[in-house]
Amino acid sequence: MDDPREAAIQRLKARRGFRQHLVTYAAVNGFLVVIWAITYGGHFWPVWPIAGWSIGLGVHGWSVYGERPITEAEIQREMKKGGDAHPREP
Fold first, then answer.
1. Could you tell me the pLDDT band of residue 39, with boundaries at 50, 70 and 90?
2. What are the residue ranges spanned by the domains of the chain?
3. Cβ neighbours of residue 61 under 8 Å, at least 6 residues apart?
4. What is the pTM of this model?
5. What is the mean pLDDT of the chain?
6. What is the pLDDT of residue 87?
7. Whole-angstrom Cα distance, residue 86 to residue 8?
8. Dihedral of CA 8/10/23/66: which sign?
9. DSSP string over 31-63
């Protein structure tokens, strides 16, 4: 993706998608806690979907905010190293 405008649009869409994921996460898990509370508590079973979904949300957040795009300088540096991990067939 060489077009800076297109790259910026993709980053903005990714951030918007993460925010939507976060709101959905909070709403659904909040609803599960309410269901747990109005059914007289007991074992806090909402912890399981909350824990599982938290892992997915964390990975999504990392992909949007933690990973940085590959730069041309990194590509050039890697090319200079050589050591092709997958040699090409002749």
1. very high
2. 4-68
3. 18
4. 0.74
5. 90
6. 55
7. 32
8. negative
9. HHHHHHHHTT--S-TTHHHHHHHHHHHHHHHII
- Tokens linked to 32: 């599960």
Nearest to 26 by CA among 44, 52, 3, 50: 50
Average pLDDT over residues 19-43: 96
Q: What is the pLDDT of residues 44-69, one digit of tens each?
A: 999 999 999 999 999 999 999 998 88
Q: How many residues does the chain have?
A: 90
Distance CA 20, CA 90 (A): 48
CA distance 8 to 59: 21
CB burial readout 17-29, b (16+ within 10 A) else e: ebeebeeebeeeb
- The Cα 72–Cα 2 span in angstroms is 10
